[in-house]
């Protein structure tokens, strides 16, 4: 057993004894009951299982949880799909994250298995663009590059990409 | 009279069908041997037609040569070749269409092929569908463009001799030797080369750099030391996967297009020759010792590797190779281990029931210290000899991997 400390959705988790053999996704599901992160291929291909890791500068990067054991995230600050909406003091959701709003508005997903992965990747992308805006003409290729590794078996990607595009064009400062 | 005529006709039929089936047999034998020689790998581009040529082979200093069209097309291919032309191309690298061939064509190995087998290959290549595709011009400059230079090279290094069986050895071993060294041309990658790019014949199979990978040492001595058994080797060469690890890089296409098609008997011959034994050799695996969990590399292994390769290095069949007893971990040159970790491995598709997902790169995840600890952990937990690496050794390997990744892209 290894003792872990980490921050998940701005809450400190730990010190907690964790079996060093388990994957991060199992840790989220089995230890913390955070089941919003989905297990797809289990082999690092589909990216359904990505969560966000925040670095010292507050920048977010996605990381797969099916090929990385929980130990990788020891001492890190991470965010999962459960942490994006704004909640009141009783834990009730009072507002969705803009990416959540946008995905729902565009009917981007159907079964939803891939959605938390797409969501996290889009959130990281938008944060990156806030820092380094891109030309309007580059929006589509930037989205394709960012979301290109995410697999969706239901909706054919179009609505995810369209939703990300509309959102990026509607938020001030992401394009120049 | 009628009766005589009908007899004659039926006799004629018998003889025609006999010739036909004899030549069909020859063609089939030729096809089998063409697969064993892996002609496809070099003479077919990824999206091109079979044997149409045009595959690029990078040379030093940005030069490139392109393989020839060896389909039966009479203008662009070898459809006009006589058996003599074909033999000269195979054994001496002399092409009736293109002059002296660059020694990227392994004619030094094919020179060992017997006359009968050349006839079979010739019969087969006369039947492969014609591809109307002109040879792409080589992109070479002085002195590499002076083809007569190749003649000099041939005079110095080409040993134009047929395979001579070793009477001290078994038939199986001799068949294996013949296949490995002629058709298989394994030495072309696994034997080091001298300054003139000729094989160092006194160091057969001792391993060599090939592109961005290390073609491992496949001497019997080294294979046995690492615990390779007859089944491991047969499985590796047939399926690209074994208890002792998997193939990657160029070797993937060799398995896919060539070795996987060897008959059971020939596979036994090849493994018998490579392990230098007529007896069945059992695989050997080191014993996993629970004590390794106190090793500095344990947390890194558990963090990044264990979910696929298993906490005790047991791997997952058809998904991620076993680490416990893995042959690559016991290869004297650890370049391929570092390459896999830093560069990742591309996905491989043999068929619907045998395919492997890619392994991601860990270049941006591991510090030099973590990589060193991990390498030492892999060695301490999963090998027989439990080598200890030093920081400069691993750093140098990482740098050379990064350099070759850069040239690849
Ligand atoms: S489940 Fe993790 S990448 Fe597919
Ligand atoms: S919505 Fe079903 S897999 Fe993407």
What does this structure look like?
The complex is a heterodimer of chains A (176) and B (409). Chain A has helices at 24-31, 98-105, 115-131, 139-147, 158-170, and strands at 2-8, 11-18, 51-54, 60-63, 77-79, 86-87, 93-95. With 176 residues, chain A is of the alpha+beta class. In chain A, strand 1 and strand 2 form a beta hairpin. The longest helix of chain A has 17 residues, at 115-131. Among the domains of chain B are: 23-162, Cytochrome Bc1 Complex, Chain D, domain 2 (Orthogonal Bundle), CATH 1.10.760; 290-408, Cytochrome c-like domain (Cytochrome Bc1 Complex, Chain D, domain 2). Chain B has 16 helices and ten strands. The longest helix of chain B has 35 residues, at 2-36. Chain B is mostly helical. Chain B is globular. In chain B, 44% of the residues lie in helices and 7% in strands. Bound molecules: FE2/S2 (inorganic) cluster (2 copies). One FE2/S2 (inorganic) cluster binds at residues 39-42, 44-49, 64, 66 of chain A.
Give the helix/strand layout.
The complex is a heterodimer of chains A (176) and B (409).
Chain A: E1 2-8, E2 11-18, H1 24-31, E3 51-54, E4 60-63, E5 77-79, E6 86-87, E7 93-95, H2 98-105, H3 115-131, H4 139-147, H5 158-170
Parallel strand pairs in A: 1-5
Antiparallel strand pairs in A: 1-2, 3-4, 3-5, 6-7
Helix pairs in contact in A: 2-5, 4-5
Chain B: H1 2-36, H2 39-43, E1 56-58, E2 64-66, H3 83-92, E3 94-95, E4 99-100, H4 107-110, H5 115-125, H6 148-157, H7 171-183, H8 187-190, E5 208-210, E6 213-215, H9 220-225, H10 230-239, E7 241-242, E8 245-246, H11 250-257, H12 264-274, H13 298-309, H14 335-343, E9 348-351, E10 354-356, H15 368-382, H16 391-408
Antiparallel strand pairs in B: 1-2, 3-4, 5-6, 7-8, 9-10
Helix pairs in contact in B: 1-5, 3-5, 7-12, 10-12, 14-16, 15-16
Bound molecules: FE2/S2 (inorganic) cluster (FES) (2 copies).
